[in-house]
Amino acid sequence: MPRLWRPELPSSEITPEGLYLRRREFLGGGAAAATSVALTLAGCKPRATAPDESTLLTLPALPEVKPGPFGTSEERTPFKDITTYNNFYELGTDKSDPAANAHRLKTRPWTVAFDGEIAKPQVIDIDTLLGRFPLEERVYRLRCVEAWSMVIPWAGFPLGPLIKQLEPTSRAKYVAFTTKLAPDEMPGQKTGALEWPYVEGLRLDEALHPLTILAVGLYGRVMPNQDGAPIRLVVPWKYGFKSIKSIVRVSFVENQPPTSWNRQAPGEYGFYSNVNPEVDHPRWSQATERRIGELRRRQTLAFNGYGKEVAGLYAGMDLRKQF
Q1: Long-range contacts of 4-7 (CB under 8 A, 24+ apart)
Q2: Measured CA distances, 164 to 24, 31, 137, 270 (Å)
Q3: Which residues of 195-231 are buried (b: 16+ CB within 10 A; e: fewer)?
Q4: DSSP state, residue 33
Q5: CATH, residue 272
Q6: How many domains does the chain have?
Q7: Is residue 321 one of the residues assigned to a domain?
Q8: Residue 88 domain-assigned?
Q9: Which of 72, 98, 186, 242 is the right S-S partner for 86, CB 3.0 to 4.6 Å?
């Protein structure tokens, strides 16, 4: 991807403002949750008030979640940070908006439609779907394009076995995902921040990879609404925006499907969106990242550290052009 422009500005102005404010709060001993300036919407608005950790810890525990493969042993990001510092534009563009607006989202009843180029199209109730597969805990890194990262203990199940049950046809080359469209429950959908509903996509072999999971919880608890309840995609070697939240439809298609951020800014967000420290975003470097809770920046890992497992998926591709 060509580097169109990189401002010569202090790091505090290149790093998302919310993260910069967090650094100031750590240095000063402050405990208030930080927010970032909206990336798309202009103008000022009041800071949203997020629930405290004691409220979030009342979420029901998920039964029989067993350790899964592939996880990292890195220190986990605290539950409070994972649930109060979020990108979920359907619930607001400030980092604290999703937690403040999460109570509006209704996650029952909930169904997911599976259609397109499959032998067994069907609409499945979320609880029926959960009953099909044993839940695993996968401790995965989450790397956001704004150069911040977390380590999250997701609870979920691999997408691959579900896909095989649906029996894709020979014409199924890609998997397209769609988020719930409900502006009354998701106030961000009343704005022009993105074209709604949010959509994402993977190549079929990416979706079948054993690292790719459908997550329904974190830290052993039911998924908080602000993190994508009741079911979301997690693709750990890609930037976080690829891991679409609150999924209601999964379609198997022959041609590369549209994706929300690529549609919004195709020069900045490619279809593949693999973590590549050698390819800068046009407005900031991707070479380093700041782990939430840390003061020092760290080097960004190719494929977010999962290159051994997934690099073979992209053999022969130019990952600067096919970003």
Answers
A1: 4/267, 4/282, 5/282, 5/283, 6/280, 6/282, 6/283, 6/284, 6/285, 7/283
A2: 49, 47, 21, 27
A3: ebbbbbbbbbebbbbebbbbbbbbbebbbbbbbbbbb
A4: P
A5: 3.90.420.10
A6: 1
A7: no
A8: yes
A9: 98
Cα(21)–Cα(34) distance, integer angstroms: 6
State which residues form the domain around 256.
11-314
Token code pair at residue 293? 């809770």
What would the DSSP string read from start to end of 156-219? EEEHHHHHHHH-B-TT--EEEEEE---TTT-GGGGSSSSPSSPEEEEEHHHHHSTT-EEEEEET
Predicted TM-score (pTM) of this structure: 0.84
As a whole number of angstroms, the distance between CA 210 and CA 201 comes to: 17
Digit-coded pLDDT (tens) for 7-32: 333 333 333 433 333 333 322 333 23
Tens of pLDDT, residue by residue over 78-94, are 999 999 999 999 999 99
Which pLDDT does position 58 carry in this prediction? 83
Place of tokens 């975003």: 281
